[in-house]
Give the backbone structure.
Amino acid sequence: FEAYSLEVEAMCCRNTEAVLKSDSLKVLDMETLNHSDMHFHYVLPLVSALISAVTPSPIEARTCPSTNIIRDGGFESGVTPPTSGGNAWTVVDFRGASSYSLTSPGSTNSGGKYAFTASVYPGPYSPISGATLQQTMHTCAGKNYSITADIRFDQTQDNGCSISVQYPYKDTVGSVTTGSGTPGINPGVWDQTVSTFQAVSNADVLSIVFRCNGQNVHNLISVDNVKVQPFNGNAF
């Protein structure tokens, strides 16, 4: 009887141990699950943030202006363009003893108060004189544009002076040039020059070149009412 009691007691102990082990596993499983849920709860937002950080944001399409893109094309700000770092116009490439200023009145075609005038005068060592007025434009590559500008020569009796409007053309430079001796150009009278081009970048440069060629050749050459605007026709 005593042996039987011991065996029953042993069985009870083994069963109890098995139950305890089973319950421990359940507790362990619940803790593991809770711990996993906790990590999932905190890790998921972190992963989402990392994905957002490495995902490139969509590139905004460049807005192409539908109107004139030249700043201060009529020089009505009254501010004389600097020789470097201009917010609109900049004057570069001086030749000879040339200088420049804003003069008044402006073009009779536009009714403005001011115009840009280059005093093109030769120096003692070179027959070529002049300067270049420039502006970097907010163009859109591949888009066609038209250029208009009012021009004037104070003297037209010589054929050695000119004004040239230059712009990018494919992989070179395009231009439209008017000489002081061009038929129809009269001294002191405003005329107009016109051209078209297709932008090659989003920052094309417009150059207006004032030149005289001759040791005794000089002139006052003016420009006003410069406009560059989108053009729906063929630019070539």
